[in-house]
Amino acid sequence: MLFYIDPGTGSMLFTILIGAAGAAVYAFRSLRVKLKGLLGGGRRRHGEDSAVPFVFFTDSGRYWTIFKPLCDEMEKRGETVHYLTASPDDPLLNEKYEHVKTEFIGEGNRAFARMNMLRADVVLSSTPGLDVYQWKRSPEVKWYVHVLHAASGVTTYRMFGTDYYDALLLSGENQIREVRSLEALRHLPPKECVLAGLPHMDAIRERWLQRGPAPAHETTVLLAPSWGADSLLNRFGEKMIESLRQTGYHLIIRPHPQSMTSEKEMIERLRKLFPEEEGLEWNFDKDNFEALYRSDLLISDYSSVVFDYALIFDRPVIYADVSLDPEPYDAGWLDGEMWILRTLPRIGTRLTEENIGKLPELIEESLHSQAFAEGRRRAAEEAWVHPGESVRLIADYLTEVRRRLTEKDEKNDEK
């Protein structure tokens, strides 16, 4: 091979090229606006060279449960929104709106290239890493807002995940304290921190409330792990499923969707060893709601579904023995244990190599534990404010921020 660029260098070069291109485009636009101003007597006509009022951006279609309720609310209010997604199969691309425009902008670097030259008043995104790697702040975006997609908070993102946003929509007082601590350590200006709740969890909660209690059924255990070398199916696989079969409870096995791409051989092997039968089913639904709704206890690992299940449905969990190194994450900068590691023992039973053979007893204890029920209640208080109200609160905040920005621009124009 005559010429080789390693991935890290390639990423850096891409960032430099996109930065240069963005600067050139911005300079050209600025010159064009100034020339129009001079030729037009120094005043811009209303609507000329105007930015998009609101842009919602996501790098993954799996966050549609955050953005669909928000798009619905902004549509109802008659607010102009451009929903930009890096997922070609994003469910929102099929929605029909009058005021909300949905668009697939390419995957990976192509999407970030578009975002880096965006013109908008307010950008709302669930994607961390703004102004850290490929995704740069556009000079023609006035305000960047980050919305959470899990109860675990902002410090479980990779380092500097939310440092360069202007505002964070949070779901617990403890998150505000963590953000302020990081800002002090890194000498960053304070961001606006708004306690707004979690649209993702509110969407699941609303579906659950509409359905009501599940019909009478035999006790059902849901096995819903993450994927990868440390996931439950890779670590315990046959031994765990066999132990669960001995419990006499109905078992739903729901592999992570990525497993069917990255670990298909392993899943197919387990399906042959444990075919569907009375008391055992495999679930591959795109949406996990039905499996969550029908079950009485969840067994998982480091998947965020643990907190969705425990806090929304108020049901017990058994979680894999988690050894999470905080150093690559923002939590590594802070004193004390990560919130998720501190909270898991309060809401459920830890599954280890030593006690996996005792799954029947662990399940029975977890189903009737008052201590875990109290732990779930406390965790919800700490990490999930304003349940059922997040969409309204976020829409209110976005429109208020844009009003502020517009008033500021008008005063500057008068000067």
Please characterize this protein's 3D structure:
The chain has 415 residues and is α/β, with parallel strands linked by helices. It has two domains: 47-198 and 388-414, Rossmann fold, CATH 3.40.50.2000; 204-383, Glycogen Phosphorylase B (Rossmann fold, 3-Layer(aba) Sandwich). Helix content is 43%, strand content 15%. It contains 15 helices and 13 strands. The chain has helices spanning 7-39, 64-77, 109-116, 173-186, 199-211, 232-235, 237-245, 259-262, 264-273, 289-294, 305-312, 339-347, 359-367, 370-383, 390-414; strands at 52-58, 81-85, 100-104, 120-125, 141-147, 167-170, 192-195, 220-223, 250-253, 280-282, 297-300, 317-320, 348-351. The strands form two sheets. Strands 3-2-1-4-5-6-7 form a seven-stranded parallel beta sheet, with helices on both faces. Helix 2 crosses helix 5 (199-211), helix 2 (64-77) packs across helix 15 (390-414) and helix 12 packs antiparallel against helix 14 (370-383). It is globular, with a radius of gyration of 24 Å.
